[in-house]
Fold these 2 entries.
Entry 1:
Amino acid sequence: MNPFHAIRRGLALLLVTLAGSAAAQALSPEEAQLVARVRQHTPAALQLLERSVLINSGTLNPAGVREVGDLFAREFDALGFKTRWVEMPVEMRRAGHLVAERTGERGQRVLLIGHLDTVFEKDSPVPPWQSDGRRVRGQGVSDMKGGDVIVLLALRALNDIGALQGRTVRVVFTGDEERVGSPVEVARAALIDAARQSDVALAFEGATKDDEGRDAATIGRRASGGWHLTVTARTGHSAGVFGRDGFGAVYEAARVVNAFREQLIEPDLTFNAATLVAGTSAAWDDAESKGQAFGKTNVIPRDAQVRGDLRYLTAEQGARVRERMQAIVEQSLPGTRSRITFRESYPPMAPTPGNLRVLDAYSRASADAGLGPIVAFPPGLRGAGDVQFVAPIVDSLDGLGAAGGGAHSPDEWLEIASIERGAIRAALLIYRLTR
């Protein structure tokens, strides 16, 4: 059996076992008090959400990102957290990150992850806030200022009942999740450092539902990266193609891409071929995502460049697929030479047994609060997120944020009731993890 399929089967069996163990139990008196405090503070949390959404914080609007960070920092300060702003180098053109910490010696150390930036830049025509009493529409309202507010609402309730005393809770709200600064090692250093000082990471990207309409959380996300194929071929008169002058760059590029399609397809793997530029000469500008080519129909093309996206669920799957792609590339047609390079922007968040155990604890907390169980969202269907930088270090769970839809579009919306629901679940989970 393929080792990757064996891992998937084992995780599926563990998931079934855990899902069957999430029967609801009565809340303790302290937990019931915690839920009451969340409900008490929900109106103020919704006001905070509106204030944050009214501030444009597109990734490339550093002043706006910092303003939202300052708004949330004051909230953390009031809860006894020590806050600091992590600056990025000027040349990165990114605002930086908000870090808030309370430290102690009791219970598991918990890391909470959110982000301050949105995809809506300063000149965006999307209205910042529209509410009908049931839903809110606005810039980044669900992706992910709603999740940030859930974090603060849960922590406020925990602080009210003294549950943060002697516990370690770290919060990192990044300022460039939507367009991560380069180099990524600098952009994510603070987040990775916080993970190394934690036992569990909880990320508050938007809540989801599975295909059956059940509330779900994220135990895995595929890596986000890419590949670049460069082909150089012997050129000459087109009458010589397939013969003394070989096959040319276009046929070689087509051979490689088609071989990928025929030989590589497997679960949770995609390798989209996005752009092809070819001719007697061909060039590509990464900064502009634009190519340029010159050629004539009676000349065998010398150059070809293909760029694509590559997503995989585990590091082992990624390594194996890159090796197979490399082997395909090396089987060049006569008169051609191909070379492939790879990049990884986000590492994979594999659906590990540890992540499933965190999901089980979250599902139990939700069921005990009368909000129903939580199932695992199919890992291959979720896009990239900051939690992937910490998942190789610490057990992680994502999707604890607000329920909504239309992310990254003018129709982005949030279900208002999901703020209270998400904060109750998060507060109970953090309470239990930190006992």
Entry 2:
Amino acid sequence: MRVRTTEKRGFRIALRVIQYAILIAYAVITFMPFLWALSASFKTLAEISTGEPNFIPKEFTLENYKRIFIDEPLFPRWFLNSSFVAVVVMGLNLLFNSMAGYALARFNFPGNKLIFFGILAVLMIPGQLTLIPSYLILNELNWLNSYQGLIVPAAVNATFIFMMRQFFLSFPKDLEEAAEIDGLGRFGTFFRIALPLAGPALAAQAVFIFMGSWNEFLKPLVIMSEKAMYTLPLGLNTFKGEYYSFWNLIMAASMVFTLPALLMFIFANRFFVKGITFTGGK
């Protein structure tokens, strides 16, 4: 019996070692392009153009960062444009998606199922298919080349309405009933009881929405025409010409572009693994 137990334990350890080896190898392969981009942001254009796969710059320079912040006067404006749009879109989605999901999960009104199936149908439609109709509508509203043209159409998201509905379906009704006994109405129950306890779902939603809005390229490309109104993805594209590309500036700007999304993920990551314990007490 001891021999079999030892063999099983040895097999489990070997299996775990193999699993960790595969995960470490995958992490290294995934991280290498980012490491090269980080290294390239401190290289000269001439060194990048040689194509040598070295991760340590032969001639370390901060000139690339200086040029994007000082010599390109619109880069700070592009950064602010992306930050403003991403933060506002994230805030509106957290509010509206949660309210819609809560209503679909808790309110039994005529058309509830029809609206839910309509949301599921929207999930099946590619975003590229609605690009031209959205452009025509924004043109009629005179919202082209404006912040509201980017923010308002992205203020709700069918995917996260569905996600919040599923979350609130599993939310214990006992807490809401206790809140009603204490004198809270529907809005009070939602904002003071349900929403605070939906922290992990809201954190996951916030990360995905922020990163999606932050990385969006196609919609700003269609909507924005004035260079000062560009977001960072569009601004990065201006460093790339038809015949010549400033890869040193692109890499430096990409590192600055990556930082907010990385910080956002690090900040909200702890909510992904944090469980919620519901109790019957107040």
